[in-house]
TrEMBL record:
This is FMN-linked oxidoreductase. GO terms for cellular component: cytoplasm. It comes from the Eukaryota. SUPFAM superfamilies: FMN-linked oxidoreductases (SSF51395). Residues 93-305 form the DUS-like FMN-binding domain. GO terms for molecular function: tRNA dihydrouridine synthase activity. Residues 1-23 are annotated as: Disordered. Gene3D superfamilies: Aldolase class I. InterPro entries: Aldolase_TIM, DUS-like_FMN-bd, tRNA-DUS-like.
Length: 456
């Protein structure tokens, strides 16, 4: 495990001024033994990524951002929260915070090596690595030759990865996320070419381009791919993606596929604490109010907060569906944070944020949560499956998990409902851009009020 310097958001301005590397670069090893948050347009918003990190994700992917979209943005830093927003004509295209930088992979949608490099240069000061989306089957991506369209244009796909690798300094990693091709032979040929571009990691969504989400992922095809990549001897990490439900399931998938890590999308969209061996239950009490408070503190646009919370669902242990329905309905009808205040106040988002920062900083490096014990039997794994008692008592329900090394997840907060409304700071004043290296210098335009709006 690499010991990395703590990355305090409050020290980031000083760090930037020194123009030195303010984080330990990602190596292929940092992509291994992990359970990572998948790129998710809309659902992979900054607050969700922060909670994923708090609850055990080893790395987090940002939502796919099309290369051109970031080029004409202005980088703005909220002096109160430290949130960094890349603001386009009418909204923030990408939002991040320095605390996530050592763990943040920015996903690019591109069909052009030069534009991809320009896009990467525009945001490289705020991320640890870049990932190329080679799997999105949606027409908005494929019609422009991006996403899954790259799977049938390997020359272009590899030229983008090569250009990124050559243009980025060594401390910035490059990776790709693909889907399976219909034939295994063609998949292996593509994988070989991708690995030869110098990527640090390759994520394989174990579905083909034409497979729908409800069809099971073909994870049985992955072992051969992993062995093939290992046989190439470059140490590149292979990350499984498709149908992983959480920590325990991640162990099963690693054992089945031999993958170095697993990536979770849908299950994390429902419950961003699913990376923990003891994910939170009764989310309406234990998570959603806290999430909303954090979002308000970070000036996350209400429509993004509302959308993300509408996706949250988890097991009900001490609450009934009927109890929580009223809460969900209130969120659904709210037009802004004030409309939901009576149910989530006091606005203690700053404390929530500080707790997240403390948890992330207490990692002292990228602790790999999915360390697979060498000779652990299936029955030993099964015995660690979550019992109702563990679900009920949270992390206290598991006394000892020697083999399962997971980042600290902090204490679940008690639900704070119906307390008096406290003050909130929604000011978001542009600051001079923190620049490193030879990045272009965007000139922040003055703005008033909150600037963080939903990610496209
Ligand atoms: C809401 C949502 C948004 C997604 N956005 C992206 C994206 O921006 N880039 C990408 O490569 N995949 C995207 N995906 C696909 C996921 O990253 C992942 O490959 C897929 O959902 C399979 O993983 P799962 O079985 O854990 O859901 C998205 C999936 C969902 C559910």
């Amino acid at each position: 495990m690499s010991q990395r310097r703590s990355h305090s958001p409050f020290a980031s301005h000083r760090a930037a001024k020194r123009q030195k590397l303010d984080f330990e670069p990602l190596t292929p090893e940092d992509y291994k033994n992990g359970i990572v948050l998948a790129p998710m347009v809309r659902s992979g918003a900054l607050p969700t990524r922060l909670y994923a990190l708090k609850h055990g994700a080893s790395l987090v992917w940002g939502p796919e951002t099309v290369d051109k979209a970031i080029l004409h943005t202005t980088r703005e830093v909220d002096p109160v929260t430290g949130v960094v927003s890349y603001v386009g004509k009418s909204k923030a295209i990408f939002t991040t915070h320095p605390i996530e930088k050592p763990y943040l992979i920015y996903q690019i949608g591109s069909a052009d090596p030069e534009i991809a490099v320009q896009a990467a240069k525009a945001v490289m000061q705020d991320v640890a690595g870049f990932d190329l989306n080679c799997g999105c089957p949606k027409p908005f991506s494929t019609h422009a030759g991006m996403g899954a369209a790259l799977l049938s244009n390997p020359d272009l796909l590899c030229s983008i990865l090569t250009a990124l690798r050559q243009a980025m300094p060594p401390e910035i990693s490059v990776s790709a996320k693909i889907r399976l091709l219909p034939s295994q032979e063609d998949t292996l040929k593509l994988v070989e070419r991708i690995i030869n571009t110098g990527v640090s990691a390759l994520t394989v969504h174990c579905r083909t381009r034409n497979q729908r989400k409800r069809e099971p992922a073909l994870i049985e095809r992955l072992r051969e791919i992993v062995e093939f990549v290992e046989g190439m001897g470059r140490g590149v990490a292979v990350i499984e993606n498709g149908d992983c439900e959480g920590f325990e399931d991640g162990l099963r998938i690693r054992r089945t596929t031999g993958a170095h890590s697993v990536m979770i999308a849908t299950a994390a969209e429902s419950n961003p604490t699913c990376f923990s061996p003891t994910p939170l239950v009764d989310l309406e009490q234990t998570f959603i109010p806290q999430y909303i408070r954090l979002c308000k503190y970070l000036n996350n646009h209400w429509s993004s907060t509302k959308f993300c919370t509408s996706q949250f669902k988890g097991p009900h242990v001490n609450t009934s569906r009927a109890d929580t329905k009223v809460f969900h309905e209130a969120i659904m009808h709210a037009k802004g944070y004030d409309d939901i205040a009576s149910r989530v106040k006091p606005w203690t988002g700053e404390e929530e944020f500080k707790a997240i920062v403390a948890t992330i900083e207490s990692r002292h490096g990228r602790i790999a949560p999915l360390k697979l014990p060498e000779q652990e039997s299936e029955s030993a794994i099964a015995s660690k499956a979550l019992t109702p008692e563990v679900q009920k008592n949270g992390e206290a329900g598991i006394e000892k998990q020697d083999e399962l090394v997971t980042p600290p997840t902090g204490e679940p907060d008690p639900a704070v409902m119906n307390a008096p409304l406290g003050p909130a700071n929604e000011a978001c004043v542009p600051m001079p851009a923190m620049l490193t290296g030879d990045l272009p210098t965007p000139t922040p335009a003055p703005v008033s009020g909150a600037t963080v709006v939903p990610l496209a």
